[in-house]
Structure formats: C-alpha cells, structure tokens
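Lab channel / #folding
Pinned by the channel admin:
"Please post every new chain as: sequence first, then the structure tokens as a reply. Keep commentary short and put observations after the output so the thread stays searchable."

First post following the new format, from NK:
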Amino acid sequence: MEIVIALIMYLGNPPELKEHLLMPDYKTCLQKKRHSIRNSNAEYRCMKVNAVVKDGKIISISNLD
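Reply from TO:
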C-alpha cells in the first residue's frame, strides 16, 4: 500500500466509484479532470488515496481520504 494521487470517476445516483487513474501530481490531475468534465456527464475528483500500485497502475483502493 502506498499513498498516491488519483483521478477518480463516479457515476450514478447515488455516485458510485467506477474508475481510477494514477496521476503523477495534483497539477496533472486537475488538467485531466477539467478535460474529462468537458467530455462526460460523470463526476470526477482528484484525491490522495491509499492504493496498491503495480506497473504504474492502481490495482485497488483500500481507503479514500
């Protein structure tokens, strides 16, 4: 487990976690979030999360901050 920054996508009502993407820093995460919001109806958040990371990808998230 390590603490990383992730772009999290929520869908539905109530919002349900659907996707997560590892980000190198908050600046990049916010840029991707703005782009994603323009092209989607989903809700996006940049968050610091406790995650299992393998080969540069988030495998699972155990605890959202």
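NK: The first helix runs from residue 26 to 38.
TO: also worth noting, Residues 2-64 form one domain.
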